[in-house]
Amino acid sequence: MVNISERPAEVEDRAIPGHWEEDLAVGAHSGSAIVTLVERKTRNVMLVHLDGDHTAETVRDALIKTMGSLPAQLRGSLT
Asked: What are the recorded GO MF terms, alphabetically (predicted)?
């Protein structure tokens, strides 16, 4: 784990693809949730619907599954 202020310049200036930003959008009354993944260089977006809960473990497992489906060169970092 690296502090966001310490991430490499190549991530900061969007020089190469493979560096992602993640967020969690939770619906009304916490009834649903979607993980958003945005690739910093290409601005490609992936949305991952979370069935059931949105605990840290559920989000982690969804990220592992989703990021694991990408080619290795597109799995540089996740912020």
From this structure: transposase activity
Distances (CA, A) of 4 to 11, 31, 35: 10, 30, 19
State residue 34 phi and psi, 5-degree precision. Answer: -135, 135
Rounded to whole angstroms, the Cα distance separating 11 from 23 reads 17
For residues 3 and 79, what is the distance between their CA atoms, to the nearest angstrom?
Answer: 9
- pTM as predicted: 0.83
Q: What is the mean pLDDT of the chain?
A: 91
Domain ranges for the chain, please list them.
18-78
In 3D space, the residue among 2, 30, 18 whose CA is nearest the CA of residue 71 turns out to be: 18
